[in-house]
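so the lab meeting is tmrw and i was supposed to have these ready like two days ago... anyway. pasting both below. for each one the top line is the aa sequence and the line under it is the structure tokens. i havent really looked at them closely yet so no promises
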Amino acid sequence: MSGLADGGPAAYQEVLDDLFRTFLAAKPLLRGRRDAEIREPRLLVGLADRFGLLPPPERTIRVTGSKGKGSVARFAAAMIGAARPGEPVGLLTSPEEIDHVDRIRVDGAPIPRADLVRLHAWLKPELAALEAGLAPGRYLSPSGQFLLLALAWFRERGVRHVVLEGGRGMLHDEVGWVASKVGVVTTILREHVEHLGPTLDDVAREKLHVAALSEVTVLGPGCARWVGSLAPADAVLVPAPPPSAAAPGWIALDRALAATAVEACLGPGTIVPAALPLPNVPSFGRLEAAGRPLWYEGLIAADSFDAAFWGPVLARGPALVLASLTDDKDVDGVDAAFARLGAPPLHVVLAGERGFLAYGRARAAFGGRVAGPVGYDDGPALRGLVAGLLREHRAELAVAVGTQTFLRLLKQAFVS
């Protein structure tokens, strides 16, 4: 039991186990049920309110969407920091990039494990009381508990500005019930339909709830169809940027969305330095695998596939394309998009207790192009798999696309 008092590894793991405990206990009852049936986000937001943890709406930005929400949140936090030096900026993202502490940051620095352990101990009696009143099949959202921990740490650190990234939706997500000056919706794709759907309009209704508690709503161009119906008529639509050979187009769009949100929050005339060294984009980048370049992207739907970028990348040499897409993503569309460029992907199946890792569609449709399963937290196994496939296919480069869980595993495998 050493380390329990000082936030050591044992205590940190105990906290993580507790944060996910009620979800894992309820998980067998959750398949096929909508978030509307199983989540009550106002329980945890009400607790934050009772403790005086809710941030001032006039200095808060919330971000949701099907693609790029994490990047917009990171860009916005960095832009506020540059525009308001000396005024601490708190950032909550979901899910974690590598380690759970990187969900919660102040001025770019993650919460120390010891602080996470200490704040969880402070909140635990109240969380236990909420848990005792849960109906069967309901749970205390892990992301909502991370929100509580973030807001508590932000208060301790004297944070002045807050940027919050929501989970898969907003109407039944804790971040969706925190008031803000600005709410951002990046894109709305047909994803998470088991929990938010079944139609695209249902998914849009969940995500566009961010407007209900926002003074200003900022939307990506793909959201235009809902302006005046599910989205406010006065929502700010950010146009699509021109194509770029440097990165997929959604990255430039995310920067533009973040800049628009920051100006709306801080006031007209806010200037973000042109040379601002923005943070790494968690959903896109380049690593090295077995001595070869490995490009990665959090690509989950053909609607956000940038052929103008990926075509030239694949033309640089024989390429190995890996996709890891669960059944709630656009498995067929992403496969077809790469196939049209002459590079049909191998589908990597992950296994373990991280949400519902169902790969039935990939197994059924692309049985001859399926690899794995690999444990969702087994970096060495993925490293060995990729190295072997690169040799087998005599590839000079690799491209890996899929869910955030897959990208997290890639970074564990190939970031030293």
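ok protien two:
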Amino acid sequence: MRTAVVHAMMAGALWGAVIVTPSLIPDVHPVVISCARFLVYGLFAVLVALPRARQLLGRLRKSDVLMLLELALTGNLVYFILLSAAVQYAGVAIASLINGLIPVAIMLMGRKTSGGSSGSMYISLALICVGTAWINVPAIMDIFHGQGNSDKAFGAFLAGLGVLSWSWFALRNAGHLKTLRFSPSEWSTLQGVTTGIVALFASIGVCLFNPQILPTALSGGRMTVFVLVILFLAICGSWLANGLWNSAAQRLPLGLSGQMIVFETLCALVYGYLMLWALPGANEAIGILLVLGGVAWTMSAQGRRAAVA
């Protein structure tokens, strides 16, 4: 279990960078960033799959193809667009607050198959919820004081849809991986190829129906930054992170693997502080400790159950 937890933490560290990295290219539309990221992810996955393409294709069933299409939409393209748009409309604080509730959504949606006791699950969920809220006390106080607006409400709604989208992806992906029909790296590669195909059709749609959002006016220096960001998002934030997450999801109980995603939010906060050369305030520090305590509680409970077994 220790190796699986480390893999989940590494995936969270990479996905935390995915949340922060698009801030380096605020002059590029979120849909363009998403399409470019997953197009490159798909191309890279095709190159990885070529040496054993015949073997992988021969093992694919119709149910696998349908599952891959579902996961490509819910866990990659749609989720990333919703998250990026939520940040634009509601701001980073509110979007992070809602996005940080993904572990809660996963455990509630998959409570019948989580494999943990109700008592430990609810204690852990309470710690994660309180910690996530504590990190964003200023944003919550703005809402209570009536300083929110329709844009923030719409952004919060989009962030909520993103939480449901990724939580659905996590549950369905973990369930399919536990069939052991494909290794985590094979499944990640197949996800990349499928996501690239979906992104290709989405990109064609953008070029035909909304070409004004294409980054054609970027200077040479800004285009270099855009290309580097996309390469990082595609290779490290998609292919590598997905492989690490699949490795963890295949080995960990659902109740624990769902909570490992909190490291995405925590790492994003750390990277944000590093970019600003600042230290977390009291609210952030207390919130981070509470969230980590919630995950540690579940890990301890899982360890006790494994020892008894």
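from a quick look at the 2nd one: The chain has 14 helices and no strands. The mean pLDDT is 82. will dig more after coffe
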